[in-house]
Amino acid sequence: MSGELYDLVAAELAEPADPRASRLAAAVAARYPRAARAVLFYGSCLRERQLDGLMLDFYLIVSDYRAAYGRRWLATANRLIPPNVFPFEADGLACKYAVLSEDDFARLCSPAAPDPSVWARFAQPSRLVWAADAAARERAIGSIARAAPTLIALTAPTMEPGADRDPLDVWRAGFTLTYGAELRAERSARPGAIVDADPERYRRFGKAAGGIVGHPPVPVDGAARAGARAGWRRMQRRGKRTVVLRLLKASATFAGGIDYLAWKINRHAGTQIAIRPWQRRWPILGAITLLPRLLAKGAVR
User: Fold this and answer.
1) 84-94 pLDDT, tens per residue?
2) Less CB within 10 Å around the terminal CB: N or C of the chain?
3) 299 falls in which pLDDT band (50, 70, 90)?
4) Domains of the chain: which residue ranges?
C-alpha cells in the first residue's frame, strides 16, 4: 500500500464531522457491544450543514457476523448477501446503517469485489466517526485505501488513449460506470458532479492511487479495451441483480424500507411516487411491482 495514499485516506477520515452525526454513530456502535469495530459516515449528508429531516448514511464495521447478531439468520443473510441494512433514530436524527465484517469490508473495497457498490462509495470522501481502538482505525484506513486504486485500475483500460486527457476523466468515467451497476435514482449528471464538487481532492487521490496501479495508464490495444468494457457490462448486470436481492432482503430487516426507497427516488429524480397501504403490508411484493414502473419512467436506471 502506498504510504502517500494511506496518509491521504487517514487525514480525510480524521476530518471533523458534525458532532451530532458522531454521537449518532456512537449510538449505533453501542447496539453491538460485542462486535462493533468502526462506524463510517459517507454520502450526500456529509456535505450538509443542516441534518434535520435527512437520513444519514453509515457503515458499521464489525468483527464478525455471529458476534454481531443474536439471531443466526441475520448473520447468515449478512454473509450471503452483504450488507444487512437497518434504520435507526436517536436525538432527533435518523440514519440507515449497513453492516459489514472487517474481512468483507476489505474484500469489497478491492478488485475482488463482485460489484462496485462498496469501493465506489469509499473512493469518495468519508469520515471515521467512531472506532473501537487504534487497530480498528488502522484496518478501516487500510481497507478504504484500496478503493481509489480499484476504481482507477478497472476504469482506465476501458478508455480511449489520449496523452492530453484530463486526469479527472478517469474518475468521471469510473463513477459513470459504477452508477450503471446499480438501480440509481440520480440524474445522469450526478457522476460528474461528484468529481466537480472537489476536483483538487480527486487529483490528489488519483495521483497517489495511480502510483499503485500505474498512472497514467499504460495504453491498451483495442482487443484489451473491448475486453475491459465487456467485463464492466458483466459487473453491471451482476450489480443490478445484487441490488434487487438486497432490496428484497431489506424488507425483512428495514422497517419502512419501501417508504424510504420512495422518498429517496422522489428526492433525487423529482418524481412523486406514493406507496399504497398494501405495498407496506407486503413490502417484498410491493417492491417487485414498483420496480418495472420506475424503470419505465426512467426514475431508476
Assistant:
1) 988 899 989 99
2) N
3) very low
4) 3-111+119-145, 149-239, 256-297
CA 271 to chain centre: 23
* d(C-alpha 258, C-alpha 284), whole Å: 9
pLDDT at res. 19: 94
Complete edge-to-edge strand list for the sheet that includes strand 126-131: 84-90, 93-101, 55-62, 36-42, 126-131
Q: What is the per-residue burial (b if ≥16 Cβ within 10 Å, else e) of 130-149?
A: bbbeeebbebbbbbbbbbbb
Cβ atoms of 37 and 136 closer than 8 Å? yes
H or E stretch covering 55: strand 55-62
For 153-185, write each residue's pLDDT tens digit. Answer: 999 999 888 656 788 999 999 999 998 877 655
CA distance 127 to 40: 6
Per the document, the length of the chain is 301
Phi, psi of 24 (to 5 degrees): -65, -40
- What is the architecture of the domain spanning 3-111+119-145? 2-Layer Sandwich (3.30)
Number of Cβ within 10 Å of residue 275's Cβ equals 18
Residue 153 to residues 118, 273, 281, Cα–Cα distance (Å): 16, 38, 44
Quickly count: other Cβ atoms within 10 Å of residue 164's Cβ. 4
- Report yes or no: 29 and 62 within 8 Å, Cβ to Cβ: no
∠142-143-146 over CA atoms, to 5°? 95
For 47, which DSSP code?
A: G
**Residues 24, 26: Cα–Cα separation, whole Å:** 5
